[in-house]
Known about the structure:
By secondary structure, the chain is mainly alpha-helical. The protein has one domain (2-104). The protein contains 3 helices and 4 strands, in the order αββββαα. The protein has helices at 2-8, 45-98, 101-104, and strands spanning 21-22, 29-30, 35-38, 41-44. Strands 1-2 form a two-stranded antiparallel sheet. The longest helix is centred in the C-terminal third of the chain and has 54 residues, at 45-98. The structure holds zinc ion (ZN) (2 copies). The site of one zinc ion has 8 residues, from β4 and α2.
Amino acid sequence: MSTIAQxxxxxxxxxxxxxxxxxxxxxxxxxxECVTNLEGRMVCSSCYRSKTEVKVKAPRxxxxxxxxxxxxxxxxxxxxxxxxxxxxxxxxxxxxxxxTIWERFGF
Length: 107
Ligand SMILES: [Zn+2]
Ligand SMILES: [Zn+2]
């Protein structure tokens, strides 16, 4: 019974062609030309386009967020480094001559 139904299934884009595969996304029947393998699943060209468009768009948004985060984080790291070096440089002259700087670092 199922073989008869498959024989009559036709491609949605090409009515005269026999359907070779079914789109795993929209469930419509298509010929071999109209389906694409997307990560091991057969999808039609329109579903493939919509899926890949979402995929391309998402990293772009993340890239902007990442870029803003990176610049903010980079500035914070730079500020902290300058602050930390300033603290170390300020603490060295007095304790270095007294010989206590080595004790501070556990020597
Ligand atoms: Zn589809
Ligand atoms: Zn087709």
